[in-house]
Amino acid sequence: MKQRDLRSTELTIADLDQFKDAPGVDTYLAVGKAYYMHPRDMITETLRGNAKKLEGEIAVIKNSTSYVEKQVQSARGAFQELVKAGQRG
Known about the structure:
Elements: H1 2-18, E1 28-31, E2 34-37, H2 40-88
């Protein structure tokens, strides 16, 4: 989900950068159901900030996933040892 949001943000930034040298191009920011005209530079900077935030969140999620996978493997190993010990005794 976060990766999709990041990709969407990156594509929007790329689209806005195409109009960097084009004067008179109006840009709008969606706020709820309304659209407000804002300078392209402000929208681009906001999107770049959002992209950095999403990249950080993705990194945290990947680290958390790795940690949880290690915990699951450890618990699975402990459970298997417990079952083997129960079968022997």
